Amino acid sequence: xxxxxxxxxxxxxxxxxxxxHRNKTFVINFGGEALLDPDxxxxxxxxxxxxxxxxxxxxxxxIRPQIDERLQKLDAPALFHKNLxxxxxxxxQCVKEAAGTARxxxxxxxxxxxxxxxxxxxxxxxxxxxxxxxxxxxxxxxxDYGHTGEVRRIDGAAISRQLDQDAxxxxxxxxxxxxxxxxxxxxEQVATQVAISLKAEKLIFLTEQGFNYPESGEPIQxxxxxxxxxxxxxxxxxxxxxxxxxxxxxxxxNAGVGRIHLIDRRTDGALLLxxxxxxxxxxxxxxxxxEDIRSATLDDIGGILxxxxxxxxxxxxxxxxxxxxxxxxxxxxxxxxxxxxxxxxALHAHRHxxxxxxxxxxxxxxxxxxxxxxxxxxxAYRKAKKLALxxxxxxxxxxxxxxxxxxxxxxxFNHLPEPLKILYNPERNSxxxxxxIE
Length: 438
Ligand code: ARG
Description:
By secondary structure, the chain is an alpha/beta fold. The protein has two domains: 2-289, Acetylglutamate kinase-like (Carbamate kinase, 3-Layer(aba) Sandwich); 292-436, Gcn5-related N-acetyltransferase (GNAT) (Aminopeptidase). The protein has helices spanning 4-21, 32-36, 40-52, 64-73, 89-112, 156-164, 187-198, 225-234, 240-254, 270-276, 301-313, 322-327, 372-386, 400-404, 418-423; strands at residues 25-30, 56-61, 80-81, 84-85, 126-127, 132-136, 139-140, 143-144, 149-154, 168-171, 174-176, 182-184, 202-207, 222-224, 259-264, 283-286, 291-295, 332-337, 340-350, 355-363, 391-396, 409-411, 431-436. It has an eight-stranded mixed sheet, sandwiched between helices. The chain has a seven-stranded mixed sheet with strand order 17-18-19-20-21-23-22, with helices on both faces. It is elongated, with a radius of gyration of 28 Å. The mean pLDDT is 94. Bound molecules: arginine.
């Protein structure tokens, strides 16, 4: 049983995202594998939930296993070249059937709404159509791809109109040519182009695997596009299931899509965990870093106060008023993680005396153990060096050892520069530490 408190915490933590996702356009791609999952209805209900929260939703489904199955029944080979299906006349027939069936099944589940909940009868509307114009891939390496095509144009305006009318847009991996031909397309490519054409806030790939660093096996939680590019450069032998979504992420990010999420859909509720928690569960690719260290601005004061309040109460940090932080805000360095201040410190520089004082170093309890304190101290050290300071002081009641491990040495009151002597509060009886700046 979930305790009342953990429910309340969970709801409060997700509310900033409920708020920020509203009226945003999300394009979600999932493979035909998802349709075969006995729990596919859970996923469809999660789509309905997103819609009910005001998200403009475009779904792009795949049909690979469904096409293979039909070909197999006909005793026809599934032919691929460079990981792309060669679509014969017979295969095209299978593509049309698979796409039609898949669409009907998805529409049926969406029509069911959130059965057995107060949202039953919510009445979702689903729109499909000829939004994708395609052209043949043609002959590559002497191989004729037949009815396999690539996206030529997306009718973004028509999709937007449907979204404005409050419909969920459902798109199959099929495109049409102006002369009425039908092409078999890659669902991932369609989703990418749709997201670009709509300038979607998010492009989400629900995948059949997680994304991990090959060396450590650790999950990749987030990457900037630049990091994703260098990751691909350093790992030329990644399987296509990993490299293709990453390439699509880079491409769409460059074209203005805000965030690209790669989510292993095999965890029940993975989509909700990714979208409504700060840390998510998948891999986020975005132009700007998800977590960043930077100088503070006046907008950060609320976050800084929130962060240091518990530490002040425990006596670990000296009390500071809002006004004091406001006047000294230029001294502060913060770590921001998707809008939340999870770390701060201040470097008070005394330029004439060529020394500085480190103060107010704090890391959010949920984010300790990730070397964030180190990063802030190093940031402050570099800043001090730039200001040509020669010594860094710190006064600490409970964390002296942490600073000593990082090159600080104990000293005493008599060795403090005069301006710091005046500030020294004998009641706190802090340890005094100093480090030379080289
Ligand atoms: N829930 C937030 C969002 O939808 C943050 C997700 C962060 N995910 C991650 N893998 N780092 O944008």
